[in-house]
Specification:
With about 250 residues, the chain is an alpha/beta fold. The chain has ten helices and seven strands. Strands 3-2-1-4-5-7-6 form a seven-stranded mixed β-sheet, sandwiched between helices. Helix 1 (about 5-20) packs parallel to helix 4 (about 85-90), helix 2 (about 30-50) crosses helix 10 and helix 5 runs parallel beside helix 8.
Length: about 250
């Protein structure tokens, strides 16, 4: 079985368990220091989207971030390779502003220049990096924007942690190998001409310990301050990318 089928089966099973137990992951469940990049991602979405926008979300999963796209009033097409995940997503959000479609992010079933915004949260490593980049660019309208939040793979501490998750069977090897890094962001810059990238969480690996020692509020202040003080892009845990198609 190839890695794509492994991941599809994994997420189908997760969706069934989540629906059975009524237990869905939410960004709101993260500790305060780890929410920072997601709060920024959400603010960018609200800056670019309005009720007239048509948004494509790929790798939507069970809708962990779809709710923030819908909150803008925009029409949202949520796609994923896992049909069971999309079934859960549809049950969670009962609105005529939402459509879902099973789709492979490497070969999106949409016409050129269809969407005002393409959004992704933690999904870039689930497809071939070059193919996904080309598909994003293809389906975006002129003056449209790709907005993403994802993990960065330059910090050796985070790379080691992700490899441990692979050894534990939590993800496939291809996902580990395709984790976004600064070189991939350079490819987006070359394709789009100009990008904005913001980096977060240079000490995220210390957050669980610091939360226990000094509390979430103080840990967030320290983490945010360090991110502003140092060149965090080489040690970041997360990044938010904005790429406008001109």
């Amino acid at each position: 079985m190839n890695d794509k089928n492994i991941e599809r089966n994994r997420y189908n099973e997760s969706a069934k368990n989540a629906l059975k137990n009524n237990d869905f992951f939410s960004v709101n469940n993260l500790t305060l220091p780890l929410k920072t990049p997601y709060a920024f991602f959400q603010s960018v979405i609200f800056e670019y989207a309005d009720r007239d926008s048509l948004i494509l979300e790929f790798g939507a999963g069970m809708g962990e971030n779809t709710e923030y796209l819908l909150a803008t009033g925009a029409r949202v097409c949520a796609t994923d390779i896992s049909e069971d995940s999309l079934s859960v997503l549809s049950k969670r959000f009962d609105t005529d502003k939402l459509t879902t479609e099973v789709a492979d992010m490497e070969n999106l079933p949409f016409e050129d220049r269809t969407f005002d915004i393409v959004a992704s949260a933690g999904s870039l490593s689930y497809g071939d990096n070059n193919a996904v980049l080309n598909e994003i660019y293809r389906v975006l309208k002129h003056n449209g924007a790709f907005i993403a939040i994802d993990s960065l793979n330059n910090n050796p501490i985070y790379r080691l942690n992700r490899y441990i998750h692979y050894l534990k069977g939590d993800c496939s090897l291809s996902v580990i190998r395709r984790m976004p890094d600064l070189k991939l962001l350079q490819k987006y810059e070359k394709k789009f001409g100009k990008i904005e990238a913001y980096f977060f969480g240079s000490i995220s690996y210390l957050v669980p310990m610091l939360n226990k020692l000094i509390g979430e509020v103080r840990t967030k202040k320290i983490s945010d301050s360090i991110d502003k003080m140092v060149d965090v892009k080489y040690s970041a845990y997360k990044f938010v990318l904005i790429a406008e198609k001109k």
